Amino acid sequence: MANSTNSSDDSASTYELLSEVVSKWNALHDRSNIPDFLYHYTTFDGLHNILKEQSLRATFSGTLNDGSEWEFGKSVIRKYPVPERISQKLAPPPSMVIPPPEAMFVTCFCEASNLLSMWRSYTEQGGGFCLGFYGPELDKLQRDDLIVGSFAARLVKMYYGDKPSPQMEQLLGCCGHSMAEWVLENMIKHQGFQEEQEWRLIVPDPPASLMSFHSGNASIKASVEIRNHHGDGKLPLKKIVYGPTLRNDTALAKTLSWMLDKYGYGDVAVNASEIPYRL
User: Fold this and answer.
1) Residue 86: predicted pLDDT
2) Is 0.70 surpassed by the pTM of this model?
3) Which side of the chain, N or C, has fewer Cβ within a 10 Å radius?
């Protein structure tokens, strides 16, 4: 688990290395093409907590629905062994070696706002909400104990497949150290999940003092909050779509508008899902 005893200098160096690798990964996938909107599917309790706490919850990746995905990512990376002569050339002096983080905490987003499989999986069979965030602003969110502009949360695009892409091989070739491998392991999912078109906010090794704990599906989940530490502190929430199994009437829309007004999001657009799905 996360080590809360690291010095601030070590943590800063780890975050800078991670940020460097993530920036190169994003550049290879044209980082300028972050979608204008990225969507987070959740239940009513999830929506209410996000509004009330002005934060998004990043959860330990080992307790996600597909807890084996990190192992899958490792297996894909192992298919591209860095030649020893290159590895030795790239390896930093022992005095500069910084081990990769031990745990990744993530918040997940989808490029699609009305995907039936997401409604079924993450919103209690369509009885929840899809929150549309302004994509480029998500990369500015941060954990509570860090100064504005630090590197401990980054927005990344997921890769789907069972072998490294040419971009991965390029990145491993130019950054063939354990940090690059660790980052890439956490960006790979089985192609069976490709429909999700997932992006993630990733947070490495948050200290245990910041974690909260709650029950999960056959597990205990650890999480940390990430927020907007700029300006008014509001999240870049721009629209809400309510699920296809909720009542599509004026009473629901009015109640949602009251809740949004209470927490300072009165300008958020609210619409009903157009999928004709009923239980």
Assistant:
1) 44
2) yes
3) C
DSSP the chain: ---TT--HHHHHHHHHHHHHHHHHHHHHTTGGG--SEEEEEE-HHHHHHHHHHT-EEEEEGGGSSSTTHHHHHHHHHTTSPPPHHHHHHHPPPGGG--PPPS-EEEEEEES-SS-HHHHHHHTTTT-SEEEEEEHHHHTT-EETTS-TT-SS-EEEE-EE-SS--HHHHHHHHHS-SHHHHHHHHTTEE-GGGGGG-EEEEEEE---GGG-EEEEETTEEEEEEEEE--STT----EEEEEE-TTS--SHHHHHHHHHHHHHTT-TT-EEEE-------
Sequence letter at residue 277: Y
Do residues 241 and 273 touch, judged by C-beta distance below 8 A?
yes
All residue ranges of the chain with pLDDT < 70 are: 1-15, 17-18, 28-32, 65-70, 80-100, 145-152, 173-180, 279
Cβ–Cβ contacts within 10 Å for residue 230, how many? 13
